[in-house]
Amino acid sequence: MKKQTPLGRLLSIYSVLFFIFLYAPVILIVIYSFNSNPINIMIWDGFTLDWYRSVFGLETSLADSSSYIDSTDQLLNALLNSLIVAGSATIIATFLGTSTAVALARYRFKLHSFYRLLLFVPMVMPDIVLGIALLIFFVGAGFTLGNSTIIIGHCTFLTSYVFIVVSARLAGMNPLTESASADLGANEWQTFRRVTLPLILPGVIGGALLSFIISMDDLVITYFISGVDSTTLPVFILGMIRRGIKPEINAIATLMLLFSVVIASAGIYFKSKNTSTP
Amino acid sequence: MKSLSISRKQLMLVALLAPTSLFLLVFFVGPMLIMLTYSFLEPGLYGGVEWHFYHWNYGRVLGWADGFYEEFDTVYLEILLRSVGLAVATVLCTLCICYPVAFWVSTLSAKKKALCIFLMTLPFFASMVVRLYAWVLILRNSGFANQFLEATGLITEPLNLMFSGTAVIIGMVYIFIPFMFLPIYSSVEKLDKNLLQASEDLGATPFTTFRKVIFPLTLPGIVAGCILVFIPSLGNFVVPNILGGAKVLMIGNMIEQQFLYARNWPFGATLSMIIIFMMMIILSIYLYKSAKKQAAL
Fold first, then answer.
1. Region B16-42 average pLDDT
2. Do B135 and A249 touch (CB under 8 A)?
3. What is the DSSP letter of B213?
4. Which residues in B lie closer than 8 A to residue A130 (C-beta atoms)?
5. Containing domain of residue A227, as a range?
6. Closest partner residue to A256 among B20, B130, B138, by Cβ?
7. Is residue A229 over pLDDT 80?
8. Quick one: which of A29, A69, A181, A242 has the fewest CB in 10 Å?
9. CATH match of B75-263 with 1.25.40.10
10. CB distance B32–A109 less than 8 Å?
């Protein structure tokens, strides 16, 4: 298994190629988002920030004909919808997932395995199936498709993710701290509020961050249950890609990647804090 | 005092579970049951449904027509089989790509290992549409791949790389690689390297060591990875939508068409149910096998 052997060297080269395969396509987008060639966006023509300016609706040096974004308002509206949906869904799912995780970790009752199943299934359910089921349900029950239906739809599976993350945190916790709190005269609520919650907080924050990311990125479920004017960012970008490749998409994609990296770093920072405090 | 504390405990339990129970029963279990019901209803002439039992939806998938308006046609069966084929191809590609890398990562120093794991998890956070869009830039006719090949003189005319089964497989492999890598890596990490030494000392060739020691011990990771990649690949509709075009329809695209264009909701619900059935079969075999293994230990 040492690197000196020819096989080991081959393996190293292969693995490095693997990571290049993983990152090169994404890096390509970032590089070409600064390309000033408006006709063929894959032929390098010079450095420009015009696509970014165009995305933000600023004045550019582009001729009017080469400016492609239909309207910056639509893009900003989609971004705003995404943030509203992800924010609300995260709050609700964090609340639901955490309470269920605490209940399952701290109480013994008959329906234990039923609840485990109930929270496992939404996570493995292919998203198109869940999207379709929700669409039939919302239309049948007379909901107007819009931000509220997207929020509900996202919560059905985000709850499971929060549940998993918080459960892992609870499993690594010493249950005696809670018994001690009870022995000292605290009631259930006080124990939860003063002992359990502070201890599981890193898990709760981690679960919330994960939910936020997944919700911001969800395409398939949102695609089916979003209304006419409740397009989220991924759905908007899918529409743009299908209408044709425009240089502005590179700029939007780069901004989204930047956003993801920031959130991911925050998540990993919390995770490292999570493990360093036993 | 005791009864009071029990009832308070129960109250707390109810308070903790009630919101989630209510929410998931109404917005998850409910919709699933409604979809199951829809798959047995007759589609209305102008969209909507007729509320009586109708089993032709399932027959239609297999090619049997309703006997009045339709003839025997295997188009849906073909699309179903194509979806399974593309999903299997995706699973095999990701497996072959990830397996050696998992071994390489496990030989690195702790710091480099952490970096590699970070690099593997980062794509989870990046938007899926953006990652697929990258492949549109690479594969389309005036894209990066064609320009590169033309520049090297390998081709004179751009190849049609987009809108093919290969493009769909590349796209799915690219977005599902972390799902395969992480479970395999965790089982490779657990593999006791002394066993490899022992096997070698006992005279086994590297191939025998792989077949008799490495492969069986990493099998749980392989199986988990395969399931995690197969299920989302099977029902995928985004990748064929972006990279496959109209030529490479998968079951997911068919479901979309039934709902958004053909307005045949019962048939779309039936197709969704078929995905669920296939998923349930795979998961129950998996759970059954792992339960049997646990019992054997």
1. 92
2. no
3. I
4. 28, 31
5. 72-244
6. B130
7. no
8. A242
9. no
10. no
